[in-house]
Amino acid sequence: MIRIVFRKSLLWACIVSFIFVFQYSCGKKMYSPVNSHISSHGIKDNQAMSRRDSLAIAKMPQYYKFLTTLKEEGYEFMDFRTYLHTDTSGLPGKLLVLRHDVHYRDIEWAYYAFQIEKMVIGSGHSTFYILLNDPEEIARSGKQVENDYMGLIRHLDSNHVDIEPHISPIDLYIDTRHPYWAKDPVDTLKKLFDRNYEWDINKNGRKLVVKGKDVFRMNDINHELITILPKYNREWTKLTRLPVEGYAAHGSATPMNKVLNNEALLDQSVLLKTGIYKYDTYNSKIFNVLSYLSDNTLPTWMSVPGNIAPGRYQLLMHPYQWSLNRRALLTTFDHPTIIPSDSIIHDIKYRLMPMN
User: Fold this and answer.
1) Quick one: what percent of the chain has pLDDT higher than 90?
2) Total-model pTM
3) What gap in Å lies between CA 351 and CA 55, rounded to an integer?
4) d(Cα 128, Cα 110) in Å, to the nearest integer?
5) Phi, psi of 144 (to 5 degrees)
6) Could you give the CA distance from residue 186 to residue 251 in angstroms, rounded to a whole number?
7) Collapsed DSSP state (helix, strand, coil) of residue 335
């Protein structure tokens, strides 16, 4: 009798343990702010999908309007993976290659942006570039940010989305080598650059020509990057189980990035020919085909997409910029300056209201 009771107890313990592990693993894999909000209401699948869509639209109405308007106007949408495997001669006349640069502030809104895309243009028509393992952001926000990024990556990957790194080579170099100029102000760095260097740019890339003294030791920078970038790629793949095909250069606020910025570094022929990465979104070979749209300065076409002239575009979209929270942003000069992430790449300067 004791044996029978023990066996039954053991059986029930195994069943309960299995149910707990199964529910935990499924919940961890599929968590998103959208799913979390819906699941708490216990709604059936088709109703949940409708509520999920409605929630995303309510959170980002401007982005929903933007995509639906361009779709109605006949635009086709691609991620960068598809674009790079398409012969440029066969590209449609109206094309939007969608790119999301995701920083810590963007994570929640990236879920909503993706939900809207699934609804309007279908999954797999945009590339998400994630600022994973960035030394500056980890220093500011701590390691928890990495866990939040991984949650988003798992969610997107389960929906077969193109996911690549959003990366700051200049910060990786500084973090590794600690050069003498790392803390110099922008004005000092710019004077040194203008006096000693100039870019030789062609349709396939660029080369930095030394016209004075090589004060920044560019050979050392490039040699170190040829070591650092593969190491970064391996760590990315180890964490995400995803290969690295290309990058989106991050507009770091580091002073040197305003002079010798990541966009230019990753467009160098000396780095491109190594094969460490196939492209960066700012490469000359991409800009020669696609015109550039960016939401950095909150342009009017975000609200009136019909103002965009017909053509082929790369769209840089930061999910937070399209959120309801962005109403706190102002373009006047009456408030303290806060430069948003990625504004440095094109030396964009505008004013923002202080964030709570």
Assistant:
1) 72
2) 0.81
3) 30
4) 9
5) -60, -30
6) 14
7) coil
